[in-house]
Amino acid sequence: MAKAKVKGKKFTFDDLELILLSLPTVVWFAIFSYLPMFGVIIAFKTYRLQPGKGFLYSLFKSKWAAFKNFEFLFASSDTWIMFRNTIGYNLIFIILGVVIPVSLAIMISNLYSQRLGKVCQTAMFLPHFMSWVVASYFLFAFLSSEKGLVNSIIVSMGGTKVNWYGAEALNYWPFFLVMMNIWKGTGYGMVVYLATITGIDSTYYEAAVIDGATKWQQTTKITIPLLKQIMVIMTIMAIGRIFNADFGLFYQVPKASGPLSNATLTMDVFIYNALTKMNNIGMSSAAALFQSVCGCITICIANWVVSKIDNESAFF
Amino acid sequence: MAKEKKVLEGLAKFNRVSKPMNILFSVVFIFAALCCVIPLIFVVIISFTHKDSIARNGYTFFPDQWSLQAYSTLWDSRESIVRAFGISVLITVVGTVLGLFLNASMGYVLSRSSFKFKGLYTIIVFIPMIFNGGMVSSFLIMTQLLHLRDNLLALILPLAVSSFNIIIMRTFFTTTVPDSLVESGKIDGASQLRIFFQIVLPISLPAMATIGLFLSFAYWNDWWQALMYLNNQDLYPLQYVLISIERNIDFVTKNAAYMGMSAVEISAKLPQDGVKMALVVIAVLPIACSYPFFQRYFVSGLTIGAVKG
């Protein structure tokens, strides 16, 4: 659209100045965004750094491997666990990431005391500003097997200590990880939805009250429909990241514990381990490319589906 | 008028959730707020707990012996701690300034409806939102093409620009900097660059504050770049020191047998729990103390950013 409008336009001095102004950012995009996109062809090569030569030379000179790297990737026994975990956790995160913040935002907007709402909202925003490294220490204070609060309580009630970072606690970790994710993300989600709720014209509610609508009816018939667009956008964005797993959450929070890998092995952890521990550039680049392509496809499909159902809500 | 207002207030009062419901909601929120804050308070308490108390009772909310010892231990090794703190501050400041310039200039260019290549530039900014090169090729480019291993630029550059921030800036400029303002500047003979720096930026402080905060919190909290690109201990930012301490402990405990150390020697070599927690407190405190005051800028940024691009 915009293109058609300015198509016949002459190139002016203004344009030159604007190009100059944006040049540093364009260069940044070229180096840190588009060059890596081009670099994904590593996944189809047997990449070796040629001694004394640069990256680009080595990349072009490396032998084509076709889909060998992908064959290795899918032959690996960890791959199935990794996909199961990545997609499983993300589905839970997507559902809870909409349901919990939306219900809390609606609830907080209904509190009598505005002040209490403000204070609680501020407190709940705190975890968003903590890094996963810090969050891992927070959790460790409770779960440390020697000194953790949870084990102290268990012992004081006559139980025996549990090694929470060992194999015996494996089954608890999906719960811990989901809990940590909710802990960190809820405040952020609430802020986004609450901003929309406070922006809703109060006359809608006044009219509804006069027609005798109950509070519940007002919520389901006014608030939620008006929140729909932002909910859909947030969900599409989350679906686009369904093949990405927060490395901090799945690696730092469980303290990279090996026995827990059945519960914590996700795409990003897998790629990181393959790249830095095993130094397997072929397999890790195949997994990284797979992740990027799948993410791109899912976000496009999600957006397409939404645009078919309701064009207004689509993201692009 | 006053009467009408009263009626509306009455209506608002009438249209409230019931009293028991309000109490229930209040309890839920107080509980949720506590869940979010208590871990931080717990860590602060541990950092002030005497090490004998920790050895006896483990971590507890009510230690029987308080002490400043953890902080004095940190003070003894202040050279490395202050350096890590300084590096965190340095990358935060430099990164924020650089990122502000890069995001704002691109956002401004995208917001000018008369710009000839607006369509192309929008695509350039948009594509990275749905596709990226992934961890491995970024890593290889950073280390083998740009040679940024053990270089502070590796901590600064990759985080400087994000399409999301650019779109927030663009939305802000489109709505608050009218074309007529730019036109009037041009009639007065100012160039686009001058208009941007002397007219547009000064009136865009709210948006700059928002993006500046996004950036500075992101830089302060970042440990990923350090994990990938740093080997040199002298360059570690605070967040990464927290990771490397943990790694050292793993290393010492795993290799203790080979090194022929006794349990006593091991525990003497390891940093005490209180010291680790004190370090966490130092890393967290600047943020925990400042975010309540900046919160509204965050909220405004998130609301603009959530609007369809």
Task: Tell me what the structure shows.
The complex is a heterodimer of chains A (316) and B (309). Chain A has a domain at 68-128 and 171-313: MetI-like fold. The two termini of chain A are 14 Å apart. In chain A, 70% of the residues lie in helices and 1% in strands. In chain A, strands 1-2 form a two-stranded antiparallel sheet. Chain A has helices at residues 2-5, 13-39, 55-61, 68-75, 78-109, 114-125, 132-143, 149-156, 173-198, 202-210, 215-240, 247-252, 261-264, 267-277, 281-309; strands spanning 45-46, 63-64. Chain A is globular. Chain B has 2 domains: 17-67, no CATH class; 78-309, MetI-like (MetI-like fold, Orthogonal Bundle), CATH 1.10.3720. Chain B is 78% helix and 0% strand. Chain B contains 16 helices and no strands. Chain B has helices at residues 2-14, 19-47, 51-57, 69-76, 78-111, 118-130, 134-145, 153-156, 163-176, 179-187, 192-203, 205-221, 224-229, 238-259, 263-269, 273-306. Chain B starts with a helix and ends with a helix. The model of chain B has no long low-confidence stretch (mean pLDDT 86). Chains A and B meet through helix 2, helix 3, helix 5, helix 6 and helix 7 of A and helix 1, helix 2, helix 5, helix 6 and helix 7 of B.
